[in-house]
Amino acid sequence: MAHPLVTVLLGGVFGLALAAPPGPMNAVIAEESVIRGWVAGFRAGLGAMSADAMFLVLAYLGVVAFVERFPTVRAVMVGVGGLLMLYFAYGAASEVRSHDLGAGAETAEGAGFWKAFTLAATNPYQILFWLTIGVGLLEPGTVDVLGQMPYLGDRLAGALVVSTGSPALVVGFFGGILVWITGFPAALVLAERRVESFAPAVAAVSALVLAGFGVLFLSDAAGTLL
């Protein structure tokens, strides 16, 4: 059995591997960071991580399995998630068009947290992760850490396989996510201070990412419901 510290570090690698790739959550974190500062970006990251923690508990209790048993419920969640992403994409695009990104700092405190939490909570693919791999972190077995990484998982499959069933692995997993949601906003804020046009560019990319995933989710929902 691996030393608990080693298990925590491996869990951290797992958390980083899943948190770092581009996607709607990182788009929200990026937008909040460059427009409203590091604290806002960190809060958005905490929102997404809080949803993961909620899903871990619900998956362990068997509650979220309900979603997979009823395709219509899943499709509705996908559709709601898609609409929310398009709504937030519109907000990000509006901030770019205004040419006054500093005005975004007046947004209600904590709004980024709830924006990220809501998007994560209506993301059925996140639920599916916790139904399968996520809840398995607490059960004896193994998990292919890098094989679960979005976009690159197929190429990295088998490179880092660790034993599951240890609370230390879960602690490390969320620790890895915490490292990302701390460092990613800090790096963006630092870049924004050095490059004047950085904030509008990041907001524009965030809008495109959210819009793209929104359309994808709506298409998925329509394919199931129609």
Note the topology.
Layout: H1 4-19, H2 24-36, H3 38-61, H4 65-69, H5 71-98, H6 111-121, H7 124-136, E1 141-144, H8 153-156, E2 161-164, H9 167-194, H10 198-225
Antiparallel strand pairs: 1-2
Helix pairs in contact: 1-9, 2-3, 2-6, 2-9, 2-10, 3-6, 3-7, 3-9, 5-6, 5-10
Describe the protein in words.
Helix 2 crosses helix 9 (167-194) and helix 5 runs antiparallel to helix 10 (198-225). The protein has one domain (4-225). 75% of the residues lie in helices and 4% in strands. The model has no long low-confidence stretch (mean pLDDT 81). With 226 residues, the chain is mostly helical. The chain has helices at 4-19, 24-36, 38-61, 65-69, 71-98, 111-121, 124-136, 153-156, 167-194, 198-225; strands at 141-144, 161-164. The termini are far apart.
Helix/strand order, N-terminal first: HHHHHHHEHEHH
Termini Cα gap: 50 Å
Radius of gyration: 18 Å
Number of domains: 1
Weakly predicted, low-confidence segments: none
**Which sheet architecture does the biggest sheet show?**
2 strands, antiparallel
Q: Give the % helix.
A: over 70%
Q: How are the strands ordered across the major sheet? A: 1-2
User: What is the strand tally?
Assistant: 2
User: Judging from the principal axes of the Cα atoms, what is the shape?
Assistant: globular
Give the count of helical stretches: 10
Q: What would the average pLDDT be, to the nearest integer? A: 81
Strand content: under 5%
**Class per helix and strand makeup:** mainly alpha
Q: Quaternary status of these chains?
A: single chain
